[in-house]
Amino acid sequence: MFRWRLLAAAALAVAGLCSAQSDVELGNLQIHGFATQALVATSHNNYLSMDSRNGSLAWTEAALNVNDQVNDRLRAGVQFHYTRLGVFGGDDISVDWALGDYALNQYFGLRAGKVKIRWGLYNDTQDYDPGYMWSLLPETMYAVDWRATDLAQMGAEAYGKVPLGEHLGTMSYSAYYGNYFYSSSDGLMESFKEEGLNFTTPPGGKTPGFDLRWAMPVSGLEVGGSLMMYNATGTLTNGTFNQPTAFWPAYYAQYDFKKFFTSGQYSKVVEYNISNIAGSGPSIDGLDQRAWFAMGGYHLTDKLEAGAYYTHLLDAGHDNSDPDNYFRDWVVSGRYDFNVNFYLKMEGHFIDGNAVGFYTFDNPSGFARRTNAGVVKLGFSF
Question: What is the rounded CA–CA span in Å between residue 145 and residue 34?
Answer without folding.
Answer: 19
